[in-house]
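Example record

One chain of 153 residues, shown exactly as stored in the release files.
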Amino acid sequence: MKILITYAAFLSINVQAFHVCMIYPDDSPYDAGFGGCETYAPGSANFEFCDTDRDDDEIPARLACLECGSCIIDSASPSSSPSTLPSSSPSETPSCVFYPEDSPYEAGFGGCENYAPGMRSNSFCGEDEDENGVRANEACMECGDCIDQAPSF
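Predicted structure tokens for this chain:
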């Protein structure tokens, strides 16, 4: 029994949510006012602020900068830079933060289905956060702020 509990604890600690990094044009890279994505690499000045630093569009560094380790590069992206938004339309709907089926998004108020229009948690899409600091509107397509896409590895 002790081994099973240890194994379960190990799994819960190491489950990570992955998001396809936001894409910004090379002439206007991600900047929350404290430097570009390179300043969010492990050991760099802003790494500890990956979850809290947000740009003018309220995008946290962890969803835009590969260097934070919370997002992945979409291999289908035409951009040469991993931290760039498409210059054709910066208002395109971003991909939702990816959670595996065996560990779905949960901020303490039920899963994403509880954030659908007409459901009681819908008005809290931009406020409810899970233990990783991911807001419901960043993970749940039901909120209408992101597109549900599984990452390509």
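Notes: Helices lie at 2-14, 61-64, 136-139.
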